[in-house]
Amino acid sequence: MLTIKNLSAGYGGVDVIHNISMQIDGNLSIVGPNGCGKTTLLKAIANILPFKGSILVEGMHYTSMKRRDISMKIAMLSQMVGIYFTYSVFDTVMMGRYLHIKNRILSTPTSEDKTAVLQALKAVDLLDEKDKEITKLSGGQLQRVFLARTLVQEPRIILLDEPTNHLDLKCQIEIIEYLKKWAEEGNRAIVGVLHDINLALSLSDHLVVMNKGEIAVDGNADKIVKSGMLNQVYEMDVAQHMRESFERWS
């Protein structure tokens, strides 16, 4: 589905990630310490940052595709940021249909677009809030609005950049579980950058651990967890920390 070869990218001419290569055929979780290049990797895959190397989506090189065509296949859902506009929930989600609308002669939403928005809002349990201004929503509701806006783009792959930050536990689990279902039902994929290792393991059995701009290990999540590699990357006994935390519940 997504093939990455010798990918390097960064800011101001300085690479943050170096010679990243991976094959993504289903859900994938990416973990690693702060500053290791996780978000930079997602931005390169999303075609937000210029990069060296090659990326193929469903066998097609980015270089042979228009930016719009790439965006039709890959969408990115980031953590919440400040809200500086007062659109309704419905209108905010409709923004996700821009790629489907822009080439039409009148450039106005059709009944098909409106139906897609309503279906997305229903999927994230916000249909009853469709006319509410987004500035009046809770943090969990707002992130679900952004998820709906991503879904109506109808991508093949969704990139998650810490989408559950600042959300309560119930919202975190609901968003991850919904996305897993979305990917499974449509033969699609989720690539998630998550600080919470347990959420990362819940999202996918395929785990990539990054460190210092490179891939430290790429493979089966259970094998990686048992290998002790996480301890090396995070420079702490991750397993012991998890065990001590879970002992409180026993």
Give a verbal description of the structure.
The chain is 40% helix and 25% strand. The radius of gyration is 19 Å and the shape is globular. The protein has 250 residues and is an alpha/beta fold. The chain has a six-stranded mixed sheet with strand order 6-7-8-3-9-10, with helices on both faces. Strands 2-1-4-5 form a four-stranded antiparallel sheet, with helices on one face. Helix 5 packs across helix 6 (139-151).
Write the layout of secondary structure elements.
Blueprint: E1 2-11, E2 14-24, E3 28-31, H1 38-45, E4 51-57, E5 60-61, H2 67-73, E6 74-78, H3 89-94, H4 98-101, H5 111-123, H6 139-151, E7 157-161, H7 169-186, E8 189-193, H8 197-203, E9 206-211, E10 214-220, H9 221-227, H10 229-234, H11 238-247
Parallel strand pairs: 3-8, 3-9, 6-7, 7-8
Antiparallel strand pairs: 1-2, 1-4, 4-5, 9-10
- Biggest sheet strand line-up: 6-7-8-3-9-10
> What is the chain-wise order of helices and strands?
EEEHEEHEHHHHEHEHEEHHH
Number of helices: 11
Strand fraction equals 15-25%
Could you give the count of β-strands? 10
Q: Quaternary state, please?
A: single chain
Q: What general outline do the C-alpha atoms trace?
A: globular
Mean pLDDT: 90
Radius of gyration: 19 Å
Give the end-to-end Cα distance, rounded to a whole number of Å. 42 Å
State the helical fraction. Answer: 25-40%
Short description:
Helix content is 40%, strand content 25%.
